[in-house]
Amino acid sequence: APALGATQARWFAHPINLNMIDSDFNPPSSEKPLYLNKFIQKPAAEHHKDVGTAERHPVVHDTADLIRSHAGDPHNKYGVAEWRHVHYDVAREPTFPRKPDLAKGELAAGAQVVRTDVWHDPKEPAIVSIAKFSPENFRPVGWAENAPQPTTTVPEGVLDFRTNRLPIGHADRRPWIYFLAASTGFIMASLIRTVACKLVHTMWPAKDVWAAGIVEVDLRPVQEGQNFVVKWRSKPVFIRKRTPDMIASSKKDDPIAPSMREPATDAERCKKPEWLIVIGVCTHLGCIPQPDAGNYGGYFCPCHGSHYDHSGRIRLGPAPKNLELPPYSFIDEFTVKLG
């Protein structure tokens, strides 16, 4: 690109050096009367008070009525992008900015200006002068009249519910907050209770298991000396109506009961002398013993040779314990309840 002449200007901070022709229709923003480089310095609170007392511009509905175009004509564009509504004109490349005139209210800016050089007042400490240089204390001339203060951002025809809202600290908000807190707490408590109940219920036996856990047995068909077998909780239960010889044989060994592998007397094993009720599973490895067999005539496990007497006590073999006694009770003379 050819070098720029001494009187030519170019776009500032643009990736391409576009030559610009000076024109009265497009003066630099700092020289245009609408955008004077003048600012008012006073506390920020007073600036905001001015907004409420300043005379506002009439209500407009078109951007063209709100801001004057900085270049071109809306009816004759003179090319692409010549008619644009912006607050400031295209900024020319700065050369040597002059020192601001504080007497005229111009803002101190530029690399050639320091704070204490511009704003230091001999009548006050430098730190106080520097504090007044805070940007919040400066507003451009006409800011109170031109600062946008929209009353609403909701288009016409759309309901605006902002007036129905209560401030965060308002007392009328508390019942609603209490209601939400109580509702949320109740819902959370209900969820926790449901989860806890489901967890506990998973540990309970099924209804069919409970139903099978209690069995009533009619004892009238059982003959004397017979080993009657019923099923209780998927296990065989031996119900034997003992003969007088069986009872006498069991009671005869009571004196040596303390020396047995699992000490127990015949009376401790049988609630009624004539009835022996035990679980028919060997306590060694779970085989089913055979009745009326073994060295003691009670039960014999053919798997590994455990011998039980007529009270179901282990007398010989590898079984560690006596035959297990199920929980039972006699409902009447001829009925027993297992479980």
UniProtKB/TrEMBL annotation:
<keyword id="KW-0479">Metal-binding</keyword>
<dbReference type="InterPro" id="IPR014349">
    <property type="entry name" value="Rieske_Fe-S_prot"/>
</dbReference>
<dbReference type="InterPro" id="IPR017941">
    <property type="entry name" value="Rieske_2Fe-2S"/>
</dbReference>
<keyword id="KW-0001">2Fe-2S</keyword>
<feature type="domain" description="Rieske">
    <location>
        <begin position="242"/>
        <end position="337"/>
    </location>
</feature>
<dbReference type="InterPro" id="IPR036922">
    <property type="entry name" value="Rieske_2Fe-2S_sf"/>
</dbReference>
<dbReference type="GO" id="GO:0008121">
    <property type="term" value="F:quinol-cytochrome-c reductase activity"/>
</dbReference>
<keyword id="KW-0812">Transmembrane</keyword>
<keyword id="KW-0472">Membrane</keyword>
<dbReference type="GO" id="GO:0016020">
    <property type="term" value="C:membrane"/>
</dbReference>
<dbReference type="GO" id="GO:0051537">
    <property type="term" value="F:2 iron, 2 sulfur cluster binding"/>
</dbReference>
<keyword id="KW-1015">Disulfide bond</keyword>
<comment type="similarity">
    <text>Belongs to the Rieske iron-sulfur protein family.</text>
</comment>
<protein>
    <recommendedName>
        <fullName>Rieske domain-containing protein</fullName>
    </recommendedName>
</protein>
<dbReference type="InterPro" id="IPR005805">
    <property type="entry name" value="Rieske_Fe-S_prot_C"/>
</dbReference>
<dbReference type="InterPro" id="IPR006317">
    <property type="entry name" value="Ubiquinol_cyt_c_Rdtase_Fe-S-su"/>
</dbReference>
<keyword id="KW-1133">Transmembrane helix</keyword>
<keyword id="KW-0411">Iron-sulfur</keyword>
<dbReference type="Pfam" id="PF00355">
    <property type="entry name" value="Rieske"/>
</dbReference>
<keyword id="KW-0408">Iron</keyword>
<dbReference type="GO" id="GO:0046872">
    <property type="term" value="F:metal ion binding"/>
</dbReference>
